[in-house]
Amino acid sequence: MLNSRTFRRQFINRFVLIISTLAALLGIVMLVWILGDVVLRGFGVINWNFFTELPVPPGEEGGGLANAIIGTLVMTIAAALMAVPVGVMAGTYLSEFGKHNLFGRLVRSLSDILVSAPSIVVGVFVYLIMVKTMGHFSGWAGSVSLAILMLPVVIRTTEEMLRLVPGEMRESALALGAPYWNMMMNIVFRAAKNGMATGIMLAVARVAGETAPLLFTAMNSPYWMQSMNEPMANLTVTLFNYAMSPYNDWQELAWGAAFLITVSVLCVNIITRLILSSGRSKP
Questions:
Q1: What is the C-alpha to C-alpha distance for residues 40 and 141, in angstroms, rounded to an integer?
Q2: How many CB atoms lie within 10 A of CB 241?
Q3: pLDDT tens-digit readout, 191-200
Q4: 114 alpha-carbon distance from chain centroid
């Protein structure tokens, strides 16, 4: 009886191990396939004109996506400037003051829900409160939608990183007479800075490839950006529009935009891993 049970456990263990390995290999193959296709079809489109010129009508030679690249950078930076300070302060509150009270639990639950909220829902929400109110699409509305998507990631990462700082460090600083704010700025934040930076970069990587919220907020534009209070060109919506078009030259630019977005997100993730690993290697 014991041998049959052992055989059954070993069989199930090997079966699950084989299925898990095949599933992992399938995921790796699909990832390599997608990345390879994007690199092969998008790398050849990347040239100087791609980064310096405006889009041209179908059939004309040249042209690029300079306005979309600048628009994406501007909206992402604006979103980070909105989300990071609020997210860091909210995460600090949850870690230091809202561990057990009702308001802290409410904020934590809402943040967890917002992490998994579909981005298109955020886009519709910002459309209703900003675009309909102002009467036009704008870069500000796009930045707000991206900031909302970034916010829960920054909040939860900040809270978790601050909680990893040993309580003895806080007690030692307070015992030496340091004010609470001084202890937080010079002791706790310094100890958790690598993890907090990782969360911020992960939040940026999350919104870098978002299309749905920008369709409802920033829309798109074939012109240079004049102000944030008007429809603004961005890579993701331009990629969507060009990929759906019947023109070969626009489709090639869409592959170039896909390559640029993929490489940018990949670089951000690699830098994030390096920051996290360097923080763990320090004593």
A1: 35
A2: 15
A3: 888 888 888 8
A4: 14
CA distances from 268 to 116, 163, 191, 198, 241 (A): 21, 25, 22, 10, 25
Distance CA 275, CA 196 (A): 10
Q: In 3D, which of 267, 239, 266, 232 has the Cα closest to residue 254?
A: 239
Asked if residues 219 and 229 have their Cβ atoms less than 8 Å apart, the reply is no
Q: Tens digits of per-residue pLDDT, 64-121?
A: 899 999 999 999 999 999 999 999 999 999 988 888 888 888 888 888 888 888 899 9
Interval 137-157 mean pLDDT? 93
* Single pTM value for the model: 0.85
Overall size of the chain counted in residues: 283
> Residue-wise over 158-176: b if at least 16 C-beta within 10 A, else e?
bbbbbeebeeeebeebeee
Nearest to 257 by CA among 273, 280, 274, 234: 234
Encoded tokens for 223: 């012109």
The token pair that represents 69 in the structure block: 């690249």
> Distance (Å, rounded) from C-alpha 265 to C-alpha 283?
30
DSSP notation for 165-221? S-HHHHHHHHHTT--HHHHIIIIIHHHHHHHHHHHHHHHHHHHHT--HHHHHHT---
Task: Give the integer Cα–Cα distance in Å for 54 and 42.
Answer: 18
Q: Please choose, from the candidates 237, 235, 218, the residue with its C-alpha nearest in 3D space to the C-alpha of residue 46.
A: 235
Residue 21 sits at φ, ψ, to 5 deg, of -65, -45
